[in-house]
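Hi all, posting the design record for the shared folder.

TITLE: backbone redesign
STEP: 1 of 1
STRUCTURE INPUT:
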């Protein structure tokens, strides 16, 4: 177990030294998604994930998150995908967020691959953005889910339970 420093949350995570992660970052509102990425990267590294086991891909906007997640599932051998983005809303919830999240959930279930949601809402353009631990928490979620999957695969009576053999 690894203690993650520099956060308001009291986090102790499993070691991630043998795990591989894909990180998808929406370029829209880069000043915010950059903060999210910094938090996620710090968490992965402090948990022991080697830099060469982290693949970072940028996409233009939130609508591209599900497709990039699908690409990670199909074309790489990452253990989990961390999705980072920011959406603006002056009237509350963005109506596109539900379908985007639903598509990511569908990919997660289809590919048996954890996907951690690190998408935040900025109330209005230009408003002061209070730094969030959301990138850190998304990375922590991914690490925990990968550890659960590894442990459950090891205990499985199935001779080959690895998610990559399912598709």
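Okay, here is what came back for every position:
SEQUENCE:
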């Amino acid at each position: 177990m690894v203690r993650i420093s520099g956060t308001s949350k009291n986090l102790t995570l499993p070691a991630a030294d043998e795990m591989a992660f894909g990180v998808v970052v929406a370029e829209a509102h880069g000043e915010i998604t950059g903060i999210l990425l910094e938090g996620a990267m710090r968490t992965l590294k402090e948990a022991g994930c080697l830099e060469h086991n982290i693949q970072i891909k940028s996409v233009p906007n939130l609508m591209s998150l599900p497709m990039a997640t699908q690409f990670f599932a199909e074309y790489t051998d990452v253990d989990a995908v961390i999705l980072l983005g920011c959406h603006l809303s002056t009237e509350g919830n963005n109506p596109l967020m539900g379908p985007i999240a639903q598509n990511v959930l569908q990919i997660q279930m289809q590919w048996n691959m954890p996907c951690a949601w690190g998408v935040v809402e900025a109330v209005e353009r230009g408003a002061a953005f209070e730094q969030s631990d959301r990138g850190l928490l998304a990375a922590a979620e991914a690490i925990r889910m990968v550890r659960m999957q590894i442990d459950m695969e090891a205990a499985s009576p199935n001779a080959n339970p690895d998610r990559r053999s399912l598709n």
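COMMENT: The beta strands are 2-4, 11-13, 21-26, 54-59, 80-88, 115-122.
Let me know if anyone wants the other runs.
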